[in-house]
């Protein structure tokens, strides 16, 4: 996931999106996981196939924001893949032939390194700001930027 | 959606998350919609109930990132609700009784004002960086921060 050198066929931007400061993000907490570099599942599906104790440690100043969440509820986490390059606009994924634009991929290397997964709340300690989750696919200590309830009428397309 | 004054029962943080600059976001483009303040659907479901021509105007430097996307495909947009307050941690939504923590709500007012909707691509002009979408629930000109393909194994929980 370091991906320090572009692979054959990949296209690098001639600027680094990290230097474009249109707005600022606050890290609202961090994700705790068993995963370190070289041993991290490639996605949440693969993370679920392995034993995985994972939880959120929310910034203590924000714990009131958890009111209303419940154990068993499905939530969406948005997290910040802070150790990745942001300037590879066309990529050559390991899992498929050829190259594709970053917006057609779930790669963590993107202009804004936002990752997003649907998970289930397995435990909740609002006073300490700890939220247990059923699985996650990022390094221990990855910064968290948002928690949202999963809402079918927003997150699924209507039947056509 | 301006929500300049906290409502009864709401809780304001004693700091403004906008001043916590843990990382910087690049606006990768803007969302074009018919909606202006006072006439914006409250969510994507309500937006779909109204005639809505909507599209993305991507930053011209990033158009190669669209390679691989297709008309008809379901994508997730992450956009930046740049005109909202970020410091109301417990909120009193108009649509329900009582107050709830922001992380249990899809409110645009949140420490990081990220909004997220699932939409379908209706047209694609990659050279110009224009992507037509079936509906959207934000003001004309709202900054866009990410486009991701919707992937069932990431965005849906497995059957249990």
UniProtKB/TrEMBL annotation, chains A, B:
Record key words, sorted: S-adenosyl-L-methionine
Domain TsaA-like: 25-159
UniProt cross-references to InterPro entries, sorted A to Z: TrmO-like_N, UPF0066_cons_site, YaeB-like, YaeB-like_sf, YaeB_N_sf
Pfam hit, one: TrmO_N
UniProt record similarity statement: Belongs to the tRNA methyltransferase O family.
PANTHER family (UniProt xref): TRNA (ADENINE(37)-N6)-METHYLTRANSFERASE
Name recorded for this polypeptide: S-adenosyl-L-methionine-binding protein
Native species: Shimia thalassica
